[in-house]
Specification:
about 675 residues, mainly beta
């Protein structure tokens, strides 16, 4: 037996024990520690006034103990650590992410089990806000690998939805997880569903999502004083989705997506963010991809399941692609692709017949690459495309189209060094290198043996037509050297590219193409600036070479530092019908450690009194272990004068996970927005 007193510290394997006094039996490896006892193992520790610890099997018992396993901590009358298990058990205690002696929130439970870096399980719990109980649950499980919190609630107001409350309850069992969704909108009614995320050992992972509502008739609702007078004016609306990803082996990936809708506008009405990004037509497909060093293949099935959309079905399509491959030790390179597909374009009306075609397509290209004087690159090429069609749009069968192509890609580099060393405006310039790279890529495509006017148009292969021209570009790049990671490294300061395309008129069937004259296409100017690590600007402009005016102009700039950040976006587009002109800025300012503000404005300078297209104001309050956000959004340019307010509470221990959802819907969440699910991010 060994007895130690004073500032005792014992290191044994991966365990460190500190205390005021300890008694250790060297035969049983059992130690009894007293006074300021702390046992640390990996990223976890627990403390108590008196702890019994077995250094052999790591079993521990503590009275009135405290346990910390990031991001959770807990205190209980009785804390035990089972032998040879990475686990803590708390009886008659609480769990929290707040590190105060009197936590702002806690989960009071009869029993709590903490599995470090894995999960936390509690039974018969009360959730306290301060000293007030607010929820009771018989069972609670929070994965430490999952960034989502267990309960999500978001109240708010919207001109289209009315007053609303969107919420979900997270559940876990084995490797499965999901959300039970319950949403209420005063103008639309009650809605709900389930998002279930699963993993199948050896067969990949996926998600099954269901969202369902019996929606009130909005037109009728706005005309009655009592919603109960609506009677049978409800509409059944739903969305079902199954998504699966399976990494068959290192080279092969299988992806499956099934999406079924009740009507064509449900995505726009209930999944706003997804609608803005992807449109209203869902994609139902199965894809089987194989990628090798010398080639890649894809087997694709695409099918329509909603008859109110126009869809080009591929039943199926098989494609093989061979990347640019050097032929032996010569300067010749080969690349090509081949595909076979049964195409069926279906329409949302019975008045138009489906367009059905079997198509086989091959493309083969031979390139010779040569470099001269280490700066000049010349790569001439020839190519041939053969395409078989089972029928054309006039009913003729077994049509074969041939296309011949040729061209040459050339580029040359010039550079000059300038002995400039300055820290003017803190730019940290250590010599400047100016690189100029002019590029000219000539291309020629002979007249196809079948005009695209005689073919059904399914994709870009069917639209190929005669071409003759040259792509021209001139790139200017400024570089300097800056001290990074203990050595000087080259970094870009600015890049400016101007590019255009010169198209020559061609003969068709021995005659000059009417309406096709030799001309330059609209030049495109691109500018990128990287003056500082905290500042960036990118601008892209398209100039109308015929009318000598700007057609499009896009500018994105960001700067951040200290307590503030600023993002500015400008978008200009001029068409023959209208001119779009938008300026967006987003400002975030941290007033102090407790308060932060955010302002987002979207502005149209050509719209007179209706110049402001969108306002969004956010006030963020730090609540020690919580972060509370109040958000107000208004879009006055809409006929409905759309305005919304909502608030979001985030546990700082789970910064990517709100208690409450954002105002728009993500593609990964049916009904409201949560953090992105890992199972979906790869899909």
């Amino acid at each position: 037996e060994v007895i130690g007193t004073g500032n005792v510290s014992i290191n044994y394997k991966d365990v460190v024990l500190t205390c005021d006094k300890i008694t250790v039996d060297l035969n049983t490896k059992l130690g009894t520690a007293e006074g300021n006892v702390k046992v640390t193992q990996k990223d976890s520790f627990f403390t108590g006034d008196r702890i019994e610890y077995n250094f052999d099997n790591k079993e521990a018992k503590a009275i009135d103990g405290y346990v910390s396993s990031a991001p959770f901590a807990g205190r209980a009358d009785d804390v035990t650590k089972p032998a040879n298990k990475d686990q803590y058990k708390l009886k008659r205690g609480y769990l929290t992410t707040c590190d105060l002696d009197r936590p702002h929130w806690r989960v009071q439970a009869r029993t709590v089990e903490i599995y470090p870096n894995d999960k936390v399980v509690a039974k018969h719990i009360l959730v306290y806000a301060g000293g007030v109980p607010v929820f009771y649950f018989p069972y609670f499980s929070q994965s430490l690998k999952d960034t989502k919190t267990h309960i999500n609630i978001m109240p708010g107001q919207d001109d289209i939805w009315g007053y609303f409350v969107l919420g979900s309850l997270r559940y876990h069992f084995a490797d499965q997880a999901g959300d039970i969704l319950v949403d209420y909108r005063s103008k639309l009614g009650l809605a709900g569903g389930v998002n279930h995320y699963y993993k199948i050992k050896g067969l990949g992972e996926g998600a099954v999502k269901v969202y369902y509502t019996r929606e009130r008739n909005k037109t009728v609702f706005d005309k009655v004083d009592n919603p109960s007078d609506l009677g049978g004016t409800r509409q059944l609306r739903y969305r079902y989705q199954v998504r699966h990803k399976w990494q068959v082996d290192e080279d092969t990936l299988a992806i499956f997506n099934f999406d079924k809708l009740s009507d064509p506008s449900i995505i726009k009405d209930y999944f706003e963010n997804e609608y803005d990004e992807m449109g209203e037509v869902p994609d139902n497909y199965f894809s089987f991809l194989t990628t090798k060093q010398d080639f890649s293949t894809e087997l694709l099935f695409r099918k329509r399941f909603d008859k109110f959309f126009n869809v080009t079905e591929r039943l199926p399509e098989y494609k093989i692609i061979i990347p640019n491959t050097r032929i032996l030790d010569t300067g010749f390179y080969y690349n090509g692709e081949a595909s076979g597909v049964y195409l069926n374009k279906t329409f949302d009306t019975h008045d138009v017949k489906d367009e059905k075609v079997v198509r086989f397509d091959t493309y083969n290209r031979l390139t010779y690459g040569a470099n001269f004087f280490r700066t000049l690159s010349i790569a001439p090429y020839v190519a041939n495309r053969e395409t078989y069609y089972s029928r054309n749009m006039w009913g003729n069968t077994n049509e074969l189209r041939s296309i011949f192509e040729a061209g040459v890609d050339t580029s040359v580099k010039f550079y000059r060094l300038f002995d400039v060393n300055t820290n003017f405006l803190k730019l940290d310039i250590n010599k400047i290198r100016h690189i100029i790279t002019p590029t000219a890529n000539y291309y020629y495509r002979y007249q196809p043996s079948i005009s695209p006017n005689n073919l059904f148009q399914f994709d870009g292969i069917d639209a190929l037509d005669t071409q003759n021209g040259v792509n021209l570009s001139l790139e200017n790049r400024l570089q300097t050297k800056r001290h990074q990671g203990g050595e000087f490294k080259s970094v870009d300061l600015a890049t400016f590219i101007i590019s255009t395309n010169y198209v020559s008129r061609l003969k068709r069937n021995g005659a000059w193409n009417e309406g096709k004259i030799s001309k330059f296409s609209n030049p495109v100017l691109t500018l990128e600036l990287f003056p500082y690590s905290f500042a960036y600007l990118k601008a892209e402009m398209t100039v109308d070479s015929k009318k000598y005016c700007v057609r499009t102009n896009k500018i994105d700039a960001t700067i951040s530092g200290g307590n503030a950040s600023l993002d500015i976006g400008y978008q200009y587009e001029k068409t023959d019908i209208e001119t779009r002109n938008y300026l967006t800025w987003n400002i975030v300012y941290r007033l102090n450690d407790k308060w932060k503000f955010r302002i987002l404005e979207r502005f149209n300078p050509y719209k007179g009194e209706g110049a402001f297209m969108e306002h969004e104001f956010t006030v963020i309050r730090d609540l020690h272990c919580w972060q509370l956000e109040f958000i107000y959004s208004n879009k006055p340019y809409l006929e409905t004068k759309d305005s919304r307010f909502w608030f979001v509470m985030r546990l700082k221990a789970f910064p990517d996970t709100p208690i409450g959802y954002q105002r728009v819907y993500a593609r990964n969440r049916f009904g409201a927005v949560g953090a992105t699910d890992s199972v979906d991010s790869g899909l």
